[in-house]
User: What shape does this take?
Amino acid sequence: MFHALADATRRDILVRTLEGEHNVSTLARRYPMSFAAVQKHVAVLEGAGLVSKQRKGREQIVSGNVETMRKANRLLAQLETVWQGRIDRIGEVLADEHNGGKNP
Amino acid sequence: MFHALADATRRDILVRTLEGEHNVSTLARRYPMSFAAVQKHVAVLEGAGLVSKQRKGREQIVSGNVETMRKANRLLAQLETVWQGRIDRIGEVLADEHNGGKNP
DNA sequence: AGAATCTACAACCATTAGGTTGTAGGTAAT
DNA sequence: ATTACCTACAACCTAATGGTTGTAGATTCT
Assistant: This one.
């Protein structure tokens, strides 16, 4: 998932597909690379669950998947929580030191 | 930055360095890979600004950098905002359709 | 001083990623 | 029916990743 987000082109595609639905060709025209390359990027995003495709006649419509992005967000938030836990522990230590100078 | 987060070992290192400070050897012992490999992972994390090193005698102390993680979080939040904007626009369209049946 | 420890860095290797071109199969338009 | 368009997929190339080992520079311990 983070790997899928680690490429600028893919993040841009994600933004576009979150703003509105596009088929692969429409997306591909906006980037200075081949259709196949964009197709691969979309495949990576799809593999990560950040995007999903839906057939509509001869075209394939790509739309962004917020659920997965929220998941990524939650993961990062957890990491921050770890940090916060550390801060709290430092707070405890300070409180303990205040509370007599030695460990109980 | 996302690339740095895209590797499981690096995310684990990040957690450990957010929980508390460790030198590189201490970290390295916890993973089934060579010291040099861990050293490289730390370098990647450092390059992404997710971690910073501080010399202390012969050892190098690694500590997590929350600032950068918040930055990552903010980026994801922005993407969600894009999505939210789309929802809002759909809302407007529905309101317009309600408001007379044709575009003004 | 000498041994042990922690780190930095180079050289190398296998695999993956990001890109290309080319071919082929459906669907839509004329 | 034939042409144009959208997509899927394979083959190939180059550069970057994640890993290895080996060598060397500082710093600490005995």
Notes: Residues 3, 7, 9, 33-34, 36-37, 40-41, 44, 57-59 of chain A lie near DNA strand C (CB under 10 Å from a C1'). Residues 2-64 of chain A form a domain with the Arc Repressor Mutant, subunit A fold (CATH 1.10.10.10). The beta strands of chain A are 22-23, 51-56, 59-64.
